[in-house]
Amino acid sequence: MAESGQGGEGGGIDWAAFAEWWAAWGAPIGVLLTIIGAFIAYAIVKAVIGRVVHEVVTGVKRKADAADTEALSNSPLAQVRVVQRTRAIGSVLNTLAAWLIGAFALILILSILGVNPASLVAMAGFLGAAAGIGAQGVIKDFLNGLFMVFEDQLGIGDTVDLGEASGVVESVGIRVTQVRDVNGTLWYVRNGEIVRVGNESQGWARVVIDQAVPYESDIDAVTQRLLDVAVDMSEHPDWLGRIIDKPAVWGIESVSAEAVVIRLVVKTRASAKYDAARELRRRVKAGLDDLGVTLPSLQKIVVQGIEDGVA
Questions:
Q1: pLDDT profile of the chain (311 residues), mean per 10
Q2: Of 57, 81, 115, which residue sits at a domain end?
Q3: Among 115, 133, 150, which residue terminates a domain?
Q4: 168: closest CA among 153, 158, 154?
Q5: What pTM was computed for the model?
Q6: Read out DSSP for 168-201?
Q7: Helix (H) or strand (E) segment spanning residue 211
Q8: Assigned domain for 131 exists
Q9: Residue 40 belongs to what domain range?
């Protein structure tokens, strides 16, 4: 039986040979298995997060009876925000999971390679000190990114102004938020550098048109025509769901020797602001043409007010 235990004629396992083989190859195999396990764990976590995000988004679409996310623009704001915020949180959780799994795998690999626990603790203390000195920016990015998402400051698909970059949010990560501007440029903005967020996709928006007309024009007639044009547009079936309040003429914004500037405002859904502004300008132009009003040169117009230059 002793011979069997040593791998003799009995065909038993040669434990001594196995131990020798494991001593030579055990560490590399353990490292390889740890790396594979980390990738598998991340794939599983990512799939679970993706599934949860998909179920939430699908449930919102089903509840709103919408075929796609874009169609939710005509649904209550809360439903749109749930979709955008859920996707942003999913993006952040994926990144966080990758960091945590990677750190855990690194600790296992170091243990397999024979690094004792005391050394791991010392290394953790060293890394903590390094983080406190040299990685403050990363920590700031991390915390600011979490707060932005969980406070619903922005979400994937939102149109935002982050100061240095403005456009549509394409991705929200732990460290970087990706924003694509109107020219198609993709901006990578560090979360820690974002000190203000202007979100054009939350709540409602306002189309503001400062219309200049010649000084000699009948201001009452022009004002009434502008209001009529805006009201007709708001009552059109194509705009009933996107204009959410009655249009208004706020009055004369500025007066010069060449022109009088009249401010027309229309309250819309956030997602419809720019489309509504373009259509309203087209209708205003047609309405003024009907009155026979010839517009003055824009180079001579000076707009004065707290929202100077907004049109």
A1: 48 67 72 86 85 68 50 50 68 79 81 69 67 67 78 82 89 85 93 89 88 92 94 93 91 90 93 92 93 73 48 40
A2: 115
A3: 115
A4: 158
A5: 0.57
A6: EEEEE-SSEEEEE-TTSPEEEEEGGG----EETT
A7: strand 204-214
A8: no
A9: 1-115
